[in-house]
């Protein structure tokens, strides 16, 4: 007979929806991603406005009809990539 282990309650963390998709963290294993930490970083950045404030330090001299991404978005992409270790 194998020893029985007390079952601990499943810990689940719910985050804000991202583009209408539910984000949930749990510690059961299964299909995982190593990039999940960026959800916390992005949420913290959104609450504190770090990249937005930093982006406001730059003047955007690009012609607006050719702009797809704001300076804030470009800055956030670059910083998040560095944080995740891609650069």
TrEMBL record:
Pfam families: DDE_Tnp_1_4 (PF13701). Residues 16-87 form the Transposase DDE domain. It comes from the Bacteria. InterPro entries: Tnp_DDE_dom (IPR025668). This is Transposase, IS1380 family.
């Amino acid at each position: 007979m194998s020893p029985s282990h007390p079952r601990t309650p499943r810990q689940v963390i719910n985050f804000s929806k991202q583009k209408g998709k539910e984000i949930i963290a749990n510690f059961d294993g299964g299909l995982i991603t190593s990039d999940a930490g960026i959800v916390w970083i992005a949420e913290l950045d959104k609450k504190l406005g770090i990249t937005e404030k930093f982006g406001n330090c730059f003047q955007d001299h690009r012609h607006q009809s050719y702009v797809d991404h704001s300076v804030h978005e470009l800055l956030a992409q670059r910083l998040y990539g560095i944080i995740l270790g891609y650069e």
